[in-house]
Amino acid sequence: MPSQVKVKKTSSKTADIINPILIDETSITRRLLIATIVNNEKDPDACISATIVHQRKGKNDQWEDVEAINLQKLKAGEGVRLHFGCTQLKKLREAIEKAYTCGYKGVLPTGQYIFGKEDEFIIPVGKEGKYIQSLLERNYGENIWEQLVELDPDLATKLSMAKIQSDRIAVVKEFITRITNDETEKFWQQFLSQNDWIFGFCLSYIFTTMVDREVYVGGTNINGRNGELCDFMAMSEGNAKFTSLVEIKRPTTPLLSSRPTRGTTYGVSKELSDAVAQLQTYCYTWGTNSSREAYSFQVRNNSVPVLPKGILVIGNTSELDNEDKIRSFELFRRNLNNPEIITYDELLARARYAVKYDDSIKEVPSEYIFDINDLPF
User: Fold this and answer.
1) Of the candidates 246, 213, 202, 233, the residue with the CA atom closest to the CA atom of residue 298
2) Tens of pLDDT, residues 62-98
3) Is 179 exposed, middle or buried (0-12, 13-18, 19+ CB in 10 A)?
4) Is the pLDDT of residue 203 over 50?
5) Among 312, 323, 355, 321, which Cα is nearest to 176's?
6) In angstroms, rounded to a whole number, what is the distance separating the alpha carbons of residues 103 and 290?
7) How far is CA 112 from CA 13, 66, 184, 212, 359, in A?
């Protein structure tokens, strides 16, 4: 983990390094390097002034400076010898180099640095993103990630989850915007197939994963024409895998007829009835298809060859603006064995729940937030 070097700005051109740099220490004495960063315009490389301080433990085990000797008052023949052993001299060199590493950055307004010992670099607090971005621009992203996974797997997982969560919140925001626009079926087919996590924990509470787009389900005639293509296929997750065929219509597709057919009963719209019939045919064709494509898919995905479940995404319940319409639609849907019908607003609600998205919350949930100081590099 990187260490932090704190400084106290003493003028526009100087700053004291607050935490002294330890050179050597015994049970009763120690020597420190106390350094000052100087913005030296005449000689930028001469950016550090320093003092070596000898301390001794006094009362209450507190370190106290030993009385200084004024070298200018020494008489002829007198002198002072300051000896450093090999290890002590090595630490003194490292301390000086560390001070200069800070000094080369100059006096910064933040008053704090993040220092990496092995690579001899510092990052001023508040500028971490700039340095990480610089490494990414130099194509070190994969190397950084590999080292992070090796050094701190838990943090790597947390970062991955934060990225996934952030991306999914962006998808939900786009969903909210797009659902009120007049988008085409093709747009929704692409949007939902690219974000198949939206279907994950829903639709009779079976985990599903998209496995194919624009699936050929069979139905060709003797000339090989009129083959049937479903928008895409999903497969349940579990020891036994079952297929589902998904058909995508538009949020603006009407669910019910505009007027009641009799009394307070509303019939389903032609678009909805046609979509149901279409998907039922797809499911039947796939379930009875003995083609090479169907057999190959079942073997490849270890799926059980039974009549697939149909999932129809269509319309918006905002259309159901009175109790009669709500009752008519829900009675039709509940008594329909296959396919299962889900409206766009219901699918959006599931997506919002999956990412804990709320209009009043503008930030990523706290469990996905990490401190930059946790980074091990």
Assistant:
1) 233
2) 888 777 777 777 777 777 777 888 988 888 888 888 7
3) middle
4) no
5) 355
6) 76
7) 16, 29, 54, 53, 37
Do residues 37 and 7 make contact, with C-beta atoms less than 8 angstroms apart? yes
Q: What's the pLDDT tens digit per position in 15-52? A: 888 777 788 888 888 888 888 889 888 898 898 898 88
- Listed in sequence order, the residues at least 6 apart from 178 whose beta carbon sits closer than 8 Å to its beta carbon are 187, 191
**326 has a pLDDT exceeding 90:** yes
Under 8 Å between Cβ of 44 and 105: no
Q: Which two tokens stand for residue 92?
A: 């003194």
Residue ranges per structural domain of the chain: 3-126, 179-342
Instruction: Kindly report, residue by residue over 105-152, the tens digit of the pLDDT.
Output: 777 665 555 554 444 455 565 666 676 777 677 776 777 777 777 777
Q: Is 234 helix (H, G, I), strand (E, B) or coil?
A: strand
Q: Alpha helices of 302-372 — where are they, by DSSP H?
A: 323-334, 344-354
Q: Which amino acid is located at 64 in the chain?
A: E
Q: Residue 205 to residues 200, 201, 202, 223: CA-CA distances in angstroms? A: 8, 5, 5, 41
Strand ranges for the chain from DSSP E: 3-9, 14-17, 21-25, 29-38, 48-57, 63-65, 112-116, 121-124, 208-218, 228-236, 243-248, 309-313, 340-342
Quote the CA–CA distance of 218 and 306 in Å, as a whole number. Answer: 15
Contacts of 345 (CB under 8 A, 6+ apart): 179, 251, 316, 317, 318
Q: Which of 136-150, 215-229, 280-294 has the lowest mean pLDDT?
A: 215-229
Please give the model's pTM, rounded to 2 decimal places.
0.55
Taking Cα atoms as reference points, which of 234, 235, 283, 278 lies closest to residue 253? 278
Per-residue pLDDT at 251 exceeds 90: yes
The owner of tokens 């090796």 is 150
Q: What is the largest CA-CA distance in the chain?
A: 122
Comparing 228 with 337, which gets the higher pLDDT?
337
Task: Tell me which amino acid residue 115 is.
Answer: F
